[in-house]
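Document type: protein sequence-to-structure record

Subject area: structural biology

Format: plain text, a pair of labelled lines:
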Amino acid sequence: MVYFMNYILNFCIGILIGAGAILPGISSGVLCVIFGIYEKLVNSVLNFFKDTKNNFKFLFPIASGSFVGIIALGNVLKFLFTTFPTPTKFAFIGLIVGEVPILCKKANKDVGFRLTYMLYLIATFAIAVLLIFIENNCNINFPSIENSNFFYLVLCGFLMSIGIVVPGVSSSVILILLGIYNIYLDSISTLYLPVLFPLGIGVIIGGLVFLNLIKYLLDYYYTKTFYCIIGFIIGSVLVLIPSFNLNFEGIISIGLFIICFCLALNFEKLEEK
């Protein structure tokens, strides 16, 4: 019964992570951190064959949920972001902001707080702001699906994996810069394998490369790496901040922010239970 409940929970988390992979400004890595599975996910992927049974039990529902999220819930969240942008964005902001105190606690668990660590946070926050600025101001003539090149798509998938692995870096920013974001969305909606297959190859290769890099940084520079992650996460909030009016929708938005903020604060307790 406990395994079944964990399966359902991880499957639902996977759905949201998958949906986050296709939405502009949303980082799958941030969602992994929010739900408290980021470190375990990195270790399970890189050490899969050391404990195949348990790692498979953990990874399979997340992977299958992510697939469902990319194909199905991504369109639902896209609808929410376009139809009810302010309440939806405030809900996400609440989840992200509520997780920051927990992340700071994790970052300081071994050596305590040092003022110099804030330099790492500020640096990655500045990078996140720069990426958001680029996303909002770059004008690119997108190629068509028919003109997409196999090896270029593999390279795009490789670079896209940065946005999947590194919390706070949105895959959409990278794909927009590479000029294939529209191709990516069209291919998902039509399951166009000539585009999705090479992208998938690149994501797998890049994911393994960058996951190993993240694991190395967490193993040897745990606190500094965590502060870098926190900087990216705080920076990612900026892309979500909407225009706001204190009307009925505004009150609903504030309510959703408070609810999601409280939920995020209690994720750690729920995870321990």
Notes: The chain has one domain: 2-272.
